[in-house]
Amino acid sequence: MVDGRVSVASFAGEQYSRVMSEIMIDVQGVGKKFRLGGATSTGRLSDVVGSLWGGGQQKREDVQRDYWALKDISFQVTRGESCSIIGKNGAGKSTLLKILTRITKPTTGRFGLVGHVGSLLEVGTGFHPDLTGRENIMMSGVVLGMSRSQIRDRFDEIVDFAGVDKFLDTQVKRYSSGMQVRLGFAVAAHLEPEILLIDEVLAVGDYQFQKKCMGKINLMTRQGRTILFVSHDLAAVRTVSTRCLLLQGGELIFDGTTESSLKKYQQDSEQSDEVDLRLLPRHPALGADRVVSFTKIRRNSVGPLTTRSALSLSIELEGHSRVGEASVLVLIGLADGTRLATLSSLDSGLMISWEDHQTIKIDVLIEKHWLAPGLYQIGLVCVQQGVTSLDWVGSAMTISVEADLEDVPSLQRATREAMGMRIPSQMSCR
Question: Structure pTM?
Fold first, then answer.
């Protein structure tokens, strides 16, 4: 830490380059604090709805608190190194990249990057929606400090890689999310940045384009470019990086080779039998004030979860006011967000109601989950009357499934059978 002061430097001067010529990214004691709750009344719809539910201003003030998304993060990345950042949702990965791209400022610490920086953080990032694809390519090159002739030299290569030649003179706001990602990556990768920062956004693209991106990232690394890559796709992490930073709860807990980091990540996931859900990010569609909140999830099963063992979970929800006729959905998906199955309390005939500030516990038992070995995400949704989402935690827990020796012949079809099917489960309320 730097005594609570913020010192953000580009470190691109000659003196810095001579002394530390191989260090392209230098992060020292970076922390980021957010203030949660305590919003003042602005007359917005959320304030009106909050007052109707009894969630007035006084209650919001009572839950006001500071939340450290990042705590004392320090690391360095050298020239030609491809480094991935992994961790659960809410670990601080995206916040770190937003600091490095100067979208947000750190609360404490300092950081430095040497040379031109290309980034792909969200769909459409860096593009003006009212400009055409052609105009956005030119504008991005100018922002990176390139001359018009340099941009023109790479223009055809960018268009060919993105596959948007038929839509070059169409406004970017008319593009699909996949088209925006293809053009965004092509621009970021082909305008010769010394450093390329990539968030999970590549998951939007199709398989063939993702394969092209992985090949391009590997080529850039061989050319001496520096890559910082954030992803939940562990296969992609193995493909593009030789080193990983593992974040947990805003802290850097492990820095090592890709294989050792992934092993550590998997071990930690297995040991996280209980997760506090109160500070985990919610679905963007939810408002600031919720009448029901998931507070805790716990895996009750003893020992490793195998392809043949049962999965037992306990979930806690707190009602902040009287709520009736609600149900709970348990979402099971791959680490990249692909949904495999949805379990509903309605299948067990369970409808849930809350009194004011009442906590309810739900037990979930899945005797046969049909999941192949690997890492999976558990998501939780509370729905009222099958329409209104009261709370939604996209990634509440990560579970690891190991192979059972007796089940080896059927492993190849296990996940395929789970895809899109209803997995038999039992839910009870206490």
Answer: 0.58
